Amino acid sequence: MGIKEIIAKIEHVKVETHDVKTFELKPQEPIAFTPGQYFLVSILSDEDLKDEWRPMTFTSLPWDKHITFAAKRMGRITHALHELPVGAQLRLKGPKGESLNFDESIKEDLVFLAGGSGITPCLSIIRYVIAKDLRNKMLLLFSNKSPKDIIYREEFDRLNQEGRITVVYSLSKEIPDDWKGERGRIDGEMIRRHVDRPKDKLWYLCGPPPMTDQLEQDLGRIGVSKERLRMESWELPGKAQRKEARDSE
Ligand SMILES: Cc1cc2nc3c(=O)[nH]c(=O)nc-3n(C[C@H](O)[C@H](O)[C@H](O)COP(=O)(O)OP(=O)(O)OC[C@H]3O[C@@H](n4cnc5c(N)ncnc54)[C@H](O)[C@@H]3O)c2cc1C
Question: Rounded to an integer, what distance in angstroms lies between the CA atom of residue 232 and that of residue 111?
Answer without folding.
Answer: 14
